[in-house]
Amino acid sequence: MNSAASPRSVGPGIRAFCDESLRCRTGGTGIYLMSAVVLASYEVQQARDVMAALLLKGQRKLHWRDESANRRLFLSRRAASIESEVVIATWCGMDSARQERPRRKAQQILLAALADRGVTEALFESRGPVRDKGDIAGLAGLRRSGALPDSLRVGHVAGPAEHALWAADVAVGAFGAALDGKPEYWTELLGGTKVTVLNCGHCDLPHGPGATGKPDAPWCTS
Predict the structure, then answer these.
(1) What is the pTM of this model?
(2) 9 Rama class: left (phi>0) / alpha (psi -120 to 50) / beta
């Protein structure tokens, strides 16, 4: 789907819109973060409309990394107004030069949690044909092993084309900022959002601010 295309039509069931972020430390270690905004099908268009209305002149999509502090507060508040469920998966001890394995692991954890919630489709922002193909190959392995049910479809879509993905970008950006000691965006998001922070797949601890806005487990670096 190119940037000029319309968002996909809403099918039956529960849908998830997913995005990722990285937090790296001096020395090359870091943590891979992945968020999903979970919506009933009838809620998807409202979420798209809320996020699309936030574009500034000249923007093709919202991207947390490019926004000012004041805008991030505003985006977090507006994302909270969607009243979705947000699920966060993490994988710590990441070598910042080798990101694909942590991504696959975080994705596996996230998708398992989404399947448990009855999600029928999970959409990730496309990272280009080569990386998307790597995702698909990994997902095929999960299906063969029985770790990913056939009832959960997984796809990729261009970021500018699917406005609901932007809510996931805000969620993972706010969570990452809280890890970096700036919890105010996450606090805004919690105003209207049900949050589940899954235990880290690497160390089995619940990193980040959780649903309280207060720090839980620290980062692990090995």
Answers:
(1) 0.88
(2) beta
Mean pLDDT computed over 30-34: 91
pLDDT surpasses 70 at 6? no
Going 66 to 67 to 68 to 72, the CA torsion angle's sign is negative
Q: Tokens 């280009």 label which residue?
A: 128
Which residues are bridge partners to 89 per DSSP?
34
For all residues of the chain together, what is the average pLDDT? 86
Alpha-carbon span 4 to 123, nearest angstrom: 18
> In the predicted model, what is the mean pLDDT of residues 206-216?
59
Describe the crossing of helices 69-80 and 41-52 by its angle, rounded to 10 degrees: 160
Measured CA to CA, the distance from residue 29 to residue 179 in angstroms comes to: 14
* Separation CA 97–CA 30 (nearest Å): 10
Are 124 and 156 within 8 A, CB to CB? yes
- In the 8-state DSSP scheme, what is residue 97? T
Give the Cβ contact number of residue 9 at 10 Å. Answer: 8
Contacts of 82 (CB under 8 A, 6+ apart): 37, 39, 43, 46, 47, 50, 167, 192, 193
Q: Which residue's structure tokens are 């069931």?
A: 13
pLDDT, mean of residues 28-37: 88
